[in-house]
Every structure is written in C-alpha cells, then in structure tokens.
Amino acid sequence: MTDKNLKITIKDVAAEAGVSFGTVSRVINNDIHVKPETRERVLKAMERLGFVANRQARSLAGGKTHFIGLLVPDLGTGYIGEIIRGIDAELTLQGLDLVLYTTHRTASKEAAYVANLAKGMVDGLLLVLPRNPADYIGVLTQRKFPFVLIDHQGTGKDCPAVGATNWQGGYDATEYLIKLGHRRIGFITGWMDLGCAQDRLAGYRAALRTYHIPEDPDLIYEGTFFQPDGYTGAMKFLDLPDPPTAIFASNDVMAMGVMDAVRMRGLRVPEDVSVLGFDDIPQASLVRPALTTVQQPLENMGRVAAQMLLDLIDQPERKVGRIELSTKLVIRESCQPPRSR
Amino acid sequence: MTDKNLKITIKDVAAEAGVSFGTVSRVINNDIHVKPETRERVLKAMERLGFVANRQARSLAGGKTHFIGLLVPDLGTGYIGEIIRGIDAELTLQGLDLVLYTTHRTASKEAAYVANLAKGMVDGLLLVLPRNPADYIGVLTQRKFPFVLIDHQGTGKDCPAVGATNWQGGYDATEYLIKLGHRRIGFITGWMDLGCAQDRLAGYRAALRTYHIPEDPDLIYEGTFFQPDGYTGAMKFLDLPDPPTAIFASNDVMAMGVMDAVRMRGLRVPEDVSVLGFDDIPQASLVRPALTTVQQPLENMGRVAAQMLLDLIDQPERKVGRIELSTKLVIRESCQPPRSR
DNA sequence: GTGAAAGCGCTAACAG
DNA sequence: CTGTTAGCGCTTTCAC
Description:
The structure is a homodimer.
Chain A: H1 10-17, H2 21-28, H3 36-49, H4 55-62, E1 67-72, H5 78-93, E2 97-102, H6 107-121, E3 124-128, H7 134-142, E4 147-150, E5 161-164, H8 166-180, E6 185-188, H9 195-210, E7 220-221, H10 227-238, E8 246-249, H11 252-264, E9 274-279, E10 292-295, H12 298-314, E11 322-325, E12 328-330
Parallel strand pairs in A: 1-2, 1-3, 3-4, 4-5, 5-11, 6-7, 6-8, 8-9, 9-10
Antiparallel strand pairs in A: 10-12
Helix pairs in contact in A: 1-2, 1-3, 5-12, 8-9, 10-11
The first copy, chain A, binds a DNA duplex through residues 7, 9-11, 19-26, 28-29, 33-35, 38, 53-54, 56-63.
Pfam families (chains A, B): LacI (PF00356), Peripla_BP_3 (PF13377)
Protein name (chains A, B): LacI family transcriptional regulator
Domain HTH lacI-type (chains A, B): 8-62
C-alpha cells in the first residue's frame, strides 16, 4: 500500500512493470492480447502502486462515462429507497455509478435534467415515476439515447419501461375484500396523473363489476399518494350515513393515514374497519396491526430496470417494450370479515 | 434548437462565432478578459448550436470533476431523504452533481468507496452517518481531500462535521416529561456505535440526575434505530411490575414502534403512556396522535454541510471543526401528565 | 503480443 | 483582449 501523494497513472505502472503504457491499458480493459505472464506482472505493479484508473480520462478517450443518471421525484417514502436498492445492486456489479437527481415533482426540472444528461454526462437514464415523460421521450428515442422508465404506464408510445401489474393488484385486493364479505369498500386513489394510480382504480372498479356491486361515487376519494390523503379520505368515508366496512388505499402510506383516522374515530382496525394498502413498503409489516397490502416487487423492479438499461447500452438497436412484474396480495392483520349487522 | 446528432465541441462554436476556441473556453469559464461584444457573439453561437460542455474533458484538463460524492447508509427512512434535500438545494445552486453510494451499513464498503472516490472521482465527499470514519479520516485529512461528516460525533479528532445538539435534545425531552409529572420514563437507545445515540442517552441520564430521579436499568432498552426495536422495547417495559408512564425513543421510527406496542396492549397514547421521539421526520406530524419529538434540523444540516464542503474545496487550508445545529422540542399530542394513581 | 502515435474536448499558461 | 500551444490520462488504431 504505497501511499504516494501524487496521482499514479498508467505510465507509472508501465515503468514499474517494465512494459509500455499501452500494454497497461490492455490489462485494464481485459484485452485478450496480453501474455498471461505480462498481465500478471502489470497487475502486481498496479497493486504495489495503488493504481486507480482515472474515470474522466477513460471516458474522454473511450466514450463511456460509467455513470448512470437516476431521476427520482423525491426520497421521502421508503418506496423509492427500495427501488434504488435494486438498481444499486445491479449497477455495482457492473462497476457503474449513480448520479442522483431529485426533481421534487417539478416537471420543468425533470425535462431540463434529462436534456442535459442526455448530452453525454451519463451513459443512460433511469427515470423513476416520471411526471411528464412525453416531453422528452421523443428526443431520447430519436437520438437512440438509452433510458428506462420505472413505474410508469406508457404514453401510448411503447418504450422501455418496467412496472407492476397495477390493475391486477387493484383487482385482487378488491376481490379479497369482497370475498371476506365486504360490500361497501372505500377506495382512495393515488395521484391520477400517474398511470399506476389510474390502473389501480380501474382494477378496483372491475372487481366490483365482476361481483355485481354497484359503484358508489361517495366511496371514491381522490388522493395524491401522501399520508394525509388517507386520513382525510377515511374521515370523509366514516362520516357517511352508510360508511364503508373496508377501505382500500392506493398506497401504504395513505393506508397508514386511514388507520390513524379510524382510530381517531374510536374504531378499531380490523374489527370495525378493514384497511388494505398497496406497495408493501418495509413499514407495512411493522405497524400494528400489520398491514395487508398488495406487494409491488420494488427492489426487483429496480434490478430489472437496471438490467434493461445495461442491455440497451450494449445494443442500442434492440427494441424493448414494457415489462410488468406481478404484484402479490400479502395478507397480514388489517382485514377481516365485516361485523354482521 | 439545431439538432445535429453529432457532438458539438468548443471548436464548432469557435468556428460559428468566428473566434479561436480558446476564447470560447474563456466565455464558458466566465473569464473577465473577453470583450462583452465577443462574449455575446460566442454565447449566441453556443445557443444556436445547442452546445453543452463535456464534463469529462473539463475535469481532465481543469482538475475539477464537478461531482460531489454522497455516502449514505441506506434510503429507508425519511431521515436521510431530508438531509439530501438540503444538500441537493445547495449543490444545485453551484452546478454540482451528486454521485450516490449506499453502503447498507457495511463498514468495508464504506472504506472502499471512500478510498476510490478520494482518488479523483469527485471533488469532495459528504458522509452521512458514517460508520467507522476513523478508518479513513486520517488518509483524507493527510491528502487534504475535502470532506464533511454529517451527523457523527467526532472520533476525538476534530474534523469537519455537522451534527445536532443530541445531548441537549435528550436532556430537554426528558426534562419536559419530568415536568409533566412523569417519574418512570423508559428510554430506548439508538445504535450505540453511533455518537448521536450515546449523546441522546447521556442527555436523558443527565436530566434524571438533575431532578434527582434514580436511574433504573430496567427502563433502558438498547435498540438500533429500527422500528421493531421500539416495539420490542416497549413490550418489555410494559411487562415490568412497575411499568413506565412515558417512553422516550431515540428516533421517530422507534417511537412509532412504541405506539404500536402500547396499542397492542390495549392501552392508549397519551392517556396511558406518553411517547416521545427524536428527529421529527415528516411522518411524525402525520401519525395519530401526532408525535411529540425532538426536532433535528435535518434539511438544514444537509445544507450547512454542503456549504462547508464547498468552502473547503475552495480553501483547502482552512480549518473547520464541528458545527452543531440546535434541536428543538416539538410538542404535539403524544405526551400528557401521567394518570394520577 | 507489444510498442508507438494520434487524438478525445477542454483548461491554462504564454505570447502577442 | 485574443490566438496559440501544451498537455490532462487514457483508448485505439497501426505498425512491428
């Protein structure tokens, strides 16, 4: 562990190993045209000197930056964190690094970041819960710039994306509640600008229809995926002359808001009101009663998206469309049959 | 918006504007030695061509990467997200980008990342909740590599760091409970490897001492900052022959675990047991009852740390030590005087 | 197999 | 004020 203060370049390594610096470069890049014996000598020299390749230089000369841009709306809930965990795992494997941009749900920022990043700052883009991808998907596609959308329903165009089976998730959860005996099921939507929110609602509606339960507009509350929406929506439901016996929130944090509201009214979950969420964030299994919820394979979505992006970077011509990972109903403690009346 | 597919370099701009490419470089770098008129012409040419400077090349030639490395343990709780929000705001202002590394609390990863990053990949390092900084602080300091520790108590060495007044926060909260009339106050610690956890406990102890309340080892449960610790710890407390009337958890997520445990026992917060947290993550004000907690100025810590780092990058010789931002007790609904017996 | 040479796009002296 | 000239550290030809 020689700790010279100065930067060690391939030239230093070359001198140390007694080869030309071109050969060192070959070793670094795992070029086959190096005698095993020479390779060994170079590797040893690198270690002895504590050599670390300069990324900037590699990029300049070679073309790749070894950076992947990651755009996320925010880091507030565990939701994004889980996705990033998956992305991270996959990228680390390939020696790529993540450049993080937080858009705070500002559409203009999103477009601006994308525009700049696509001009060579990163090798590819991962867009989580993109707000208005329509603005830039065209440009990205035309330039053949690699990108993958995470958790977004296509804008009609078919472009690389990974998401979950939101419709099915909404359907399954609602069906589960119906089979438990519930007839009045409140639904709190997500932010309806997002395709996933629309799909979950559609799934809920479809299940009602299948079981011939009339839809009641009073039992649908439009939220935005934030916890207070769950609270407010539930309060509104509970004030109804004929309140629901179960409430299905479009994500877990809103479901927690619902739980708070139910308790606030002096009622109990699940005895008086069943509560069901969506996502299965880490918190879901930790609250009491543990939340029954529709699991999204968040970490896996991140991992799959990263893989897709890497493929796309290797073979830009390859056509890939949307991949849907399946959701799964995770039954815990927050739902039970309604009280008999 | 000329959309040539090829990369546009300063040479193209130079040709377009009818100047040498050295002049274009000056314009990019806001060099004063350019005739306003010429600058204008160059700027126009850049716009016309849609020029974006190549970061890799700038770094290679100029020395700065315009990237800041950010090491975080994980992205699970809102806690880190808030800090990042502050960092982000400050860095965006300066046109710097964030390279994200998630260590997942693995000490070896932490050291490895730091070692690599410090070798020119980024201009500076921001280390949130570092696990074993002692391993690399020496090297970093010796090389005069700019870095700032966030939320970590110094290892004896005095190095750039920003944190909160954890001791005072622990003291204030405990004092508040005592003044409410509580005598038996359960305390759930954080991960005791971390200085902040130690300080909060020390503050708790100091307050007890001040008010001549004997410390009871049964009322201290060692946790690790995760929600289940709060649940388990509270369960243990509640099983005591003489259970506490108030429980102070070393962070908010553990406090939420405590709330769950209290409810699980059929008791109410705050009527039967008061609960107090630490951090004031966004969730704290959203749960019911809203959590009384010690607020850490998380976002501001991020902002201040970023500023410190930028200063350090500009003036590497400058000596800076630890900055402590003050905590504040935020009184909401989860605490009240104990039931009279 | 390996060495030598030519840039990648830009900054930073250095001359005028 | 502006043009010119060297590199920054590395990948890639292209020879040998």
